[in-house]
């Protein structure tokens, strides 16, 4: 995931898999790496959960309220609260993940079931005060190349090596 700011400058470059991660903040010359353990001061655990396994865990409660549907999940020490309610574009999905005294939330306001231009998202880490607001300006017509998912610290592959794409 790459978040860009003014003039297209990279603000955050996060690469997260189930077993490894790398986060770079170029403006601060910060690059951190790790394995399955997620550091408390960085949103690695949340990114891993939200992008790779957002509905993982066991459902232990669900109800319908005046504000919409509510689900509670347990996943490896975390308690996840998922709420669905109306928003200006259609449906707001609110997710709060609580683990080890830390709460991280994400709110996605979408026009449909799949992301589309104009959708918004907001991430908040209550412990650090980090807040990220995202406006989806466009959706690419083509899927990303396979290399987009490679470890950014791995040695570059030669163009004609097995597994490389041109």
Question: How would you concisely characterize the structure shown here?
Answer:
By secondary structure, the protein is mainly β. 5% of the residues lie in helices and 45% in strands. It contains one helix and eleven strands, in the order ββββαβββββββ.
How does this model look, in words?
With 166 residues, this protein is mainly β. The protein has one domain. The protein contains 1 helix and 11 strands. The strands form 2 sheets. It has a 7-stranded antiparallel β-sheet with strand order 5-6-7-8-9-10-11, with no helix packed on it. A 4-stranded antiparallel β-sheet has the order 1-2-3-4, covered by helices on one side. Strand 7 (78-86) and strand 8 (91-99) form a beta hairpin. The chain is globular and about 55 Å long. The model has no long low-confidence stretch (mean pLDDT 84).
> Could you tell me the radius of gyration in angstroms?
18 Å
Q: Which structural class do you get from the secondary structure elements?
A: mainly beta
Distance between the termini: 21 Å
Question: What strand order characterises the main sheet?
Answer: 5-6-7-8-9-10-11
List the domain count as a whole number. Answer: 1
Portion of residues within helices: under 10%
Q: Major β-sheet, in short?
A: 7 strands, antiparallel
How many distinct helices?
A: 1
| pLDDT < 50 stretches | none
Tally of DSSP β-strands = 11
Q: What order do the SSEs take from the amino end to the carboxyl end, as H and E?
A: EEEEHEEEEEEE
Strand percentage: 35-45%
Query: Residue-averaged pLDDT, rounded?
Result: 84
Coarse morphology: globular
């Amino acid at each position: 995931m790459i978040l860009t700011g003014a003039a297209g400058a990279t603000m955050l470059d996060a690469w997260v898999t189930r077993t490894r991660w790398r986060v770079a903040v170029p403006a601060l010359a910060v690059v951190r790496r790790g394995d399955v353990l997620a550091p408390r001061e960085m949103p690695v655990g949340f990114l891993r959960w939200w992008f790779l396994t957002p509905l993982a865990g066991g459902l232990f409660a669900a109800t319908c309220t005046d504000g919409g549907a509510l689900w509670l999940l347990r996943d490896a020490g975390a308690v996840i609260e998922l709420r669905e309610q109306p928003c200006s574009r259609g449906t707001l999905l609110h997710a709060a993940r609580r683990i080890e005294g830390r709460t991280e939330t994400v709110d996605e306001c979408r026009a449909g079931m799949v992301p589309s231009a104009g959708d918004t998202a907001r991430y908040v880490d209550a412990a650090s005060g980090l807040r990220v607001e995202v406006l989806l300006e466009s959706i690419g017509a083509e899927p990303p190349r396979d290399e987009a998912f490679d470890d950014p610290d791995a040695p570059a592959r030669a163009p004609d090596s097995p597994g490389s794409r041109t």
